[in-house]
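Email to the structure team, subject: PIPK domain-containing protein model.

Hi all, the expression group asked for a predicted structure before they design truncation constructs. Nothing fancy, just the tokens so they can compare against earlier work. One-line instruction: predict PIPK domain-containing protein, return tokens.
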Amino acid sequence: MQTTSSAIKGAIQLGIGYTVGNLTSKPDRDVLMQDFYVVESVFLPSEGSNLTPAHHYPDFRFKTYAPLAFRYFRELFGIKPDDYLYSICSEPLIELSNPGASGSLFFVTSDDEFIIKTVQHKEAEFLQKLLPGYYMNLNQNPRTLLPKFYGLYCVQSGGINIRIVVMNNVLPRALKMNFTYDLKGSTYKRRASRKEREKSNPTFKDLDFLQDMHEGLYFDSETHSALMKTLQRDCRVSKIY
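Reply from the structure team: attached below.
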């Protein structure tokens, strides 16, 4: 596949535009257990078809995982279909220049609403297995601190699979950050490298946080209690599997 950045971004926009638009013809109903395991697939040839538009990218197949379940999640988070499509498809996606340690690519919509991240097969598989627990948690724990997942997709072309997940963007590019910490709850090799520290806006890690914020963070008792309850409920989601 011509896995140039523009080809990937174009395929993502075309695929999501088609699948979300197609969902509007499906009536609203309660989410059933089998909905979490549905995978819908559509072929988008460059010359177009009766169902799909012509485009300037290599032919590709676009897969949508659990479309009805993710439609429910988007509704629950107050994301209207037209707004979702407008944010993702109306303007070119912006590729972030700082990929994760996993080698994932990150794209952000031009309005800063959504982050699109490429994920490995194992990550996508794990997320799909989590969906029933994620669904239950959202209904029982509206204050969840888990990422807000809006869609899970896969672009297939030339024998290559590019899996992506769409999430909320909690750090708009215009937001000025005084300090940034990537915390994982581990101290093993969790210190920012010398190269990272030399950056104008470095991302520090767990050992840096313990050193810099040795007195911790202070919350009033009510906020602390609510935060701990939310964290405990969120941790139960992954324990289901």
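The domain at 180-238 is CATH 3.30.810.10 (Phosphatidylinositol Phosphate Kinase Iibeta; Chain: A, domain 2). The chain has two domains: 4-168, 180-238. Ping us if the truncation boundaries need rechecking.
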